[in-house]
Design a protein that fits this description.
ten-stranded antiparallel β-sheet; 4 helices; single chain; alpha+beta; 34% helix
């Protein structure tokens, strides 16, 4: 079970929620669940009970599902880092000299917008890695997760993109001290060359995407943040002007070309 599959199931469930609410409300009204009659009625009491339980339990189930999705995303990111932690050579002081060009996925978060990794770490288009686990580390450290990661095969990056809704594919160059792993690189600094915008809306997956919009998210760690998505005109219709950006505006905010 991964976060993408849980999110898809939750999305399908939310689509039928209005029909379920209307059906329970109609059943309660039809059986006199909201009447002031004092005459005993098993059907009326049962329908009223169902409606009350749905109103009380429904939001709790939704919150639990969102917490599960966030937890699975974090676990997936950590497993990915551990899986990529196998060096393809034994001597860390005899590093090969090579061009470290790769691909990765990232979210666009916060206001003003910035890049955010799968683990939630923020970074700008041209950044030097910092270790949040040990302040004495100068990334990258072979036995630690610190450092900038990138795939050397764009197909692996596309796979990660497919199981992380809301993320974008970015093209990067890594510099400084770097390690070569089984699926890519881990290095000291990173330069984002460009971000690939999807052709279709990131919400309905059908209509052509037109602009970026900011939605308010909350994760299991009990803090909220803004996340930007690229949506079509229909799915972004209700957003205010201050909560939306054109492609050119987002490109300037990230200081990164968008293609």
């Amino acid at each position: 079970m991964d976060s993408a599959s849980v999110e898809r199931k939750l999305g399908r469930t939310l689509r039928v929620m209005p029909a379920v609410v209307l059906a329970l409300l109609a059943l309660s009204i039809a059986t006199g669940g909201f009447s002031s009659s004092t005459e005993p009625s098993a059907i009326r009491d049962f329908s009223h009970f169902l409606f009350t339980v749905f109103i009380a339990v429904g939001p709790l189930i939704f919150i639990a599902a969102m917490l599960l999705i966030e937890r699975l995303r974090t676990a997936s990111a950590k497993n990915l880092a551990m899986h990529n932690s196998k060096l393809v050579y034994t001597d860390a002081f005899n590093l090969p000299s090579q061009e470290m060009h790769g691909y990765k996925i990232a979210f666009i978060a916060d206001r003003p917008p910035t890049f955010a990794g799968l683990t939630g770490d923020r970074y700008i288009h041209d950044a030097v890695a910092q270790c949040s686990l040990n302040t004495e580390h100068v990334p990258p450290v072979a036995g630690c997760e610190c450092g900038f990661y990138a795939y050397n095969d764009i197909r692996r990056a596309h796979h990660e993109l497919s199981i992380n809704p809301g993320a974008f594919l970015i093209d990067v160059d890594l510099f400084g001290v770097g390690f070569t792993y089984t699926h890519g690189f881990k290095a000291e600094s990173q330069l984002v060359n460009f971000l690939t915008v999807p052709k279709r809306c990131m919400r309905c997956k059908t209509l052509p995407a037109k602009k970026f919009v900011a939605t308010y998210k909350m994760n299991y760690a009990s803090f909220a943040y803004w996340q930007w998505e690229f949506r079509c005109s229909l799915c972004s219709y209700s957003f205010k002007e201050q909560d939306s950006m054109s492609i050119d505006e987002m490109s300037k905010a990230l200081n990164t070309p968008l293609r």
